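Two proteins, back to back. First:
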Amino acid sequence: MRKLKFHIRYNVALFIIIGLLASSCQSYFLDVEPQQSISDQSVIVDAATAETALLGVYDKLQSGNYYGGDGYQAAAYLAGGDNLWVGTLNYYATFITHTYRSDNTLLNSVWYSIFTVVNGANNVIDKVEKLESKSITEAQRKQFSGEAYVLRSLAYFDLARAWGNVPIVLKPTTAPNDFDGVKQSSKEQVYRQVLEDLTKAEGLLPATTDRNRITLKTVYAFKARVHLYLAEYDKAEEYASKLISDSNYELISWSSFVNSKNSKESVFELAYSTSDKSSHYGAWSSDGYRNQFCPGPSLYNLLQDPATGGDRKILIKNISTSAILNYYVQLLYWRSTGDNPTYIFRIAEQYLIRAEARTKKATPDLTGALADLNAVKTRAKVPAFASTDKSLIEKAIEDERRAEFALEPHRWFDLVRTGRAGTVLGVTDSKKYIFPIPFNDLAADKDLVQNEGY
């Protein structure tokens, strides 16, 4: 991890200098111009500086290479088989063909971006715990620490499902050799650490409803997802049920959802503004410009079919011509001003998590699974599904996830976790189900070992 830690530390120092010399991009969460990437011990001295550092971690989460619309999301969109590469940067195309290598530019940028979230969260957790009571209230200490634990757990969850075997570092990195000797942990070990962090956060966070900041309800949504990935179906059902029964969340109409921010559909979304823009609109092809990727014809046809897409047809339009084929434009992130939100957790996912968990748990509840599945279908105005065949219900849930999250980065990871990537996408080499560790880090860190097959 030598190269990684040097990179993080270098960026912290660089952003401090930049923050002193010029105004940086404003965070949506702050009214002042924050030094978003500062996580040094000298900065966190009281509640105000602790919150500024915490909001800096949110800002890293929002970066274009992570959840800002390109980078991590682009890799998942293209690997999932439903989107097309239509740009000029060849390293995007490797995700469609599953021929990515350790020198892939996108993977290198994403790896660094996610680990900056880890390091920023580690700094908040470490420093906030040490603050004297005269400089921070216990309620603030709990809330800031709880949010940081969840941010760290989200970063490690995404690292694990993308790269499988990654080093777990739980203290802030301040020097290149701070964690020499730290080996990679397995994917399941990383998921267990994610749950450990979430359990800590569960005891710290308030049970309020805030769609732009992490609360106890965010933890419930996240735990439901992690337990599903670990095939712990009773737990997945338990945590999804906490949100489904909460009147603050609701399956609203698709037209309302697409045209709203912070709606009752949303459990946790990242907010952007016209001065702090996301990369969604610019990374996807739009009416006036074909950028790096766009929806593919099979996805367009799926959503246009009344039996499968229903009201979700509004998500994609076709502006192809005889001269320009396969010109599909997504309409979930339609705001050309760049203030499109990123949806991290929403209530439809909780219904489909519970549906899958009820189908796959030791004592299946197929009636309950169908009720959850059909709640999502009914909202989309597609015909309800009826069957008593467990395998057919599982396939119907898989298909519904594809349509429901057509423009969100779930499909690739869903097919990998269920062992269906080979059948559905023709990716028969299971070594390609996780990405290669970036070459530069391997060269700089003797403790890192490349994933098998690269």
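And the second protein:
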Amino acid sequence: MSGREMMASISPPTTEQAEGIAASADMGTMPAGQSWPSARRAWTCVALLACAHMINMFDNGLTGFLVTLIKADLQASDAEMSLLIGFAPVAFYALVGLPMARLIDRYPRTIVMPIGSLFVGTFTLMCGLAQNFWQLFLARMFVGSSATVNGPGFYSLLADYFPPHKLSRAIAGMQVGFVLGTALASLLGGVLVAMAIGWGTSDWFGLTIRPWHKVYMVGAAGAFLVSLILWSIKEPDRRELATLKPGEKAKMMPVSETLHEVWRRRAVYLPLFLALGFMSLEMGGIAPWRVAFMERNYGWDVAKIGAWSAGTMLIFSLIGLPLGTWMTEFFQKRYDDAPVRAILVSWVIALPFSVAGPLMPTGELMMLCTGVGITFAMASAIPQNTAVQIITPNRMRAQVTAMYLFMMTVVGGLGANLLTAISGALGGEAYLGEAMALAVAIMTPLAIICVMTGLKPYAREIRERREAGVM
């Protein structure tokens, strides 16, 4: 797409669209007979979603600690491992992401999401029983079903529990689960792998169960626990039902209409989507290989890597979340493009530190550079989610969220393959660090350019919505 097309002006909302957006953007004023859930119920939902998010991220982070063991046992190449840790878990998302988001829009979320987590637990357990590469690949592929419902479902629930002016803080609260889960995976993942190695290899009904199989079994237990947590959340009333006329049924936008609306407003949406895609391609390539890189390059064992990674993730992420909130609110007082501008500033600051990290002579210096990059990556997460949610009508929000997460999950899943391709072009596995730095040096500037092209269209969209009286 050309820069001219990216900057094309968007048509103002129609009267019908303005009314629909106004209903979803009303700053806490609800129609007679329908009030917002109590603060206690709402924040209980945030706490439960944060717990579920934490466990999911812990489970997702375990595979990075298993790369060396799986590669040795299955005699797989780096390219095959990239398919396993990158492509496999997102393939299912690519196929069913939007249809599953429609389920979130149409049926009780506290039923759809727990069922999805049950499937995740079942297929994670199958990872713990896989006897060859392709069995593990297929099981990992179906594990990706979790992301098809949890992301859109989490945001949909929060939007019905909190009025818009309080939604960003609820999202930040939920993101604490991401931080804690990732930190726990880094800290306990290495410990768990070390324990599993101590358990040794065993036979079970003719199957050879190696240490990495047992780690996956622990992960399966976590997915089943997530299902119970999600089942305990009380389904809130959907906000759009309050605006219906007597006897009128709620109608969600079909996928075709949602795609048409996103394309019609492409000058606003595409820069955000493409920017996230480039950043996800970078992060999806580096994260799964970071443990293996530190083992090879610095001689660290998984326990030490886990302890340092956990501390780095926890400290710098908890700095980044309030920083992102502050930047967004600071720019909101001065610019119509506030969330997009906050994203831009965060990524520009993160760029040099993220490039330098894998080129550092010691593991400690790499972790320090990585930590600064994490701070501003987490800071950008708040305005990224805010930017999409506040311009998207409620009746298509889950589907648009699924499209947005598609860029992170599916495109990001290809990053591991990109990294092995770059290292191969540079000379092989010995150049993994240089490949990581080069991936950042290419992808982050492309993401920054996309965000820059989206500043004016986003500001224009906000002004038009304000003039139409829907903000």
